[in-house]
Design goal:
The protein has 76 residues and is α+β, with helices and mostly antiparallel strands. Helices cover 34% and strands 20% of the residues. It has a domain of 41 residues: YefM-like fold (3-Layer(aba) Sandwich), CATH 3.40.1620. A three-stranded mixed β-sheet has the order 1-2-3. Strand 2 and strand 3 form a beta hairpin. It is rod-shaped, with a radius of gyration of 26 Å.
């Protein structure tokens, strides 16, 4: 865990947040006492939604596309 003074944090906020984004934990000190701990945000999703596999709809016994076509024919 990296520690730095509040003044250093103000001067280098962008750099510090880049470190946190990469997984580093940073402790901010004021007059030698810890006042804040900056940790990476927790996310439930590690993979973006566009990279995850899509849902597959399955109907037992027959293919879904055939069931849809059959249903459309019946409704005419």
């Amino acid at each position: 865990m990296k520690s730095l003074s509040f003044t250093e944090f103000r001067k280098k906020a962008s750099e510090v947040l880049s470190l946190v984004e990469k997984g580093e934990t940073v402790r901010v000190l004021r007059h030698g006492k810890a006042i804040a701990k900056i940790v990476p945000a927790e996310t439930d999703e590690k993979t973006p939604s566009w990279k995850r596999p899509g849902l597959r709809l399955v109907r037992p016994g027959a293919s879904l596309s055939k069931a849809i076509v059959e249903e459309r024919r019946k409704s005419r």
